[in-house]
Amino acid sequence: MPYPKKVNDVVIVIPARYRSERLPGKPLVDVCGKPLIQWVWELANRVEEANRVVVAVDDVRVETAVKQFGGEAIMTSSQHRCGTERLAEVAAKLPAKLYVNLQGDEPLARVEDISLLIKSMEAEGQADAGTLCHAITLEEAADPNVVKVVFDHQGFALYFSRSRIPYERDGNGAAVSYWKHVGIYAFRPPALQIYNPNQNQPEMEQLEKLEQLRMLWHGLKIRVWQTTASAQGVDTPDQLNQVRQILAERIRNGI
């Protein structure tokens, strides 16, 4: 279908990949009576700073589910290697001033964090993209499933890694600040030009499996804003069960 060429101010794009390696069909798994993707879509629609929310899908089953609960779905290629490539395809169809990438497996993301990111990017004139982080312990920093970020004195990202960064060489017990990357991004349109599925991935992106490293490799500037500790996403069956318990408790408490 043709899409209107009206320029939106802020579009939240929710990449929803059906063929998840660890949880096949993840966007459609039941969470307290709703598909997982619906929880994410509903919280995105509570973000007052955004004027459009779309789900970027790669499978007709997810597209059908999104339309059934009243959402807007855009079919994208199944060949994309990361969520930002999927977002870039949507951006080519829906012009906007700012795009927010909210992963489809983050039903516990905070509306206030997304609002913070949008407002910060709108006020920031130098960044090509923006994201969030929060402080973590040494034990958390040692976990390769926790992505760490280091940034300069102006808050611009220097590097993201699954390794513990910065590394304390002397090991003398000095206090070290570790920052966990919160995987919500805001992009200005030019930054998405590098997310072409036909473009080679930099070695560090391939090794770390972190798509944001492509921006750093190309010399783009990512501004990092600090927030408080965030809830986890859904990558494993255990995490799925934990999220179900949290949301079930919220429903019981009328939250």
Q: What key phrases describe this protein's structure?
A:
255 residues; alpha/beta; Spore Coat Polysaccharide Biosynthesis Protein SpsA, Chain A; 8 helices; 11 strands
Care to describe what's here?
With 255 residues, this protein is an alpha/beta fold. Helix content is 28%, strand content 24%. The chain has a 7-stranded mixed beta sheet. A two-stranded antiparallel ribbon has the order 2-3. Strands 8-9 form a two-stranded antiparallel sheet. A hairpin with a 5-residue loop joins β8 and β9.
Measured distance between first and last alpha carbons: 38 Å
Question: What class would the helix/strand composition place it in?
Answer: alpha/beta
- Mean pLDDT, as a whole number? 92
Summed up, the helix count is 8
Which oligomerization state do the chains in this entry correspond to? single chain
- The low-confidence parts are 1-5
Shape assignment: globular
CATH architecture: Alpha-Beta Complex
Beta-strand content: 15-25%
CATH fold-level assignment: Spore Coat Polysaccharide Biosynthesis Protein SpsA, Chain A
Tell me the number of structural domains.
1
Strand order of the largest sheet: 5-4-1-6-10-7-11
